[in-house]
Amino acid sequence: MNEALVTGGLVFIVGMVLVGPFLSKRIEKQLEAFLFVMGCLAVTISGLWSWHLVCEALVDPIKITLAVLFAGLIFRFIRPKIGAWAHAFGRRFGYPTLFFIIVAGLGLLSSVITAIIAALILAEVISALRLHRSLEVRLVIIACFSIGLGAVLTPIGEPLSTIAVSKLRGEPYQADFFFLLKLLGRWVIPLVILLGVLPAFLSTKHKRDEGPSLTEDKPEEVKDTLIRTGKVYLFVLALVFLGTGLTPIVDKYIVHIPSAAIYWVNTTSAILDNATLTAAEISPAMPIDTIKDALMGLLIAGGMLIPGNIPNIICASKLSIKSKEWAAFGVPLGMVIMLGCFILLLLT
Questions:
Q1: CA-to-CA distance for 121 and 110, rounded, in angstroms?
Q2: Of all residues in the chain, what percent are helix, strand and coil, respectively (each to 5)?
Q3: Domain boundaries, the chain
Q4: pLDDT tens-digit readout, 258-296
């Protein structure tokens, strides 16, 4: 196929992937299937179909899918006890300590239990605490920043990390299970701990609201766990196809963007799922510093608005947090973190 037609077709697919969920509620609700179709089209236009790619796409989602399934089943078993444990811990050690455990603990554990299960636990704990709504909203947002960051440390933590490791598995990086921990751990772990300290300062600055506290919409059922597991598998499979199909334009254009520029360009992750953006832009042809900056930009910006990452979407839906509430605190917090990390990245 003519190079200009290939480029034009792939640019059209990128545009559809970025704006489609905003233009159509049906696409938004069936995002996994939509991305699967777009991924298959991208691979077809690029002429990159191979048996190896099909096998890779079928195998890569298995680890994170099994992690979501098993962690989800365990969560259902301990769910009735989570609220009581949180109350008992808060009474014994104080709520600032509890908040630190919620934010930093879930952030670090999310790389093992997955960001999805960490978000479900967060919604359950917040629903049980019955604190001030304004405090609860801020606590949820801070915790979702932490979960979104911490989950990147292993490829089973979230789809973003699964796709990043998948795309960097070959030469020159030979990405393995601990690749992202080694690349991003010295940035992510201190940031998660700092986020854990933050709620202790916020808790004294908000008076009690007249309205009710946040309450979870409904308990998780087995069918919810199974449906979510299937969606995660299809989502990651679709992103493997999409990432491979977009390789020609990524290697021709995106890899040449300076790392500082791509860091700020990735603030778009606030409104676009950061795993999708990872599939669209990360390439083994990038220098390691560009990969690091790109991923940090995606991870931080992903916490600023509800659509940015999976924990935000789960918690906002389950706890009925409005987009304006999220943006009022999430955007300023995210921009402060973005600026602070940018300065540190420039200095190192």
A1: 10
A2: 80, 0, 20
A3: 60-347
A4: 999 999 999 988 888 889 999 989 999 999 999 999 999
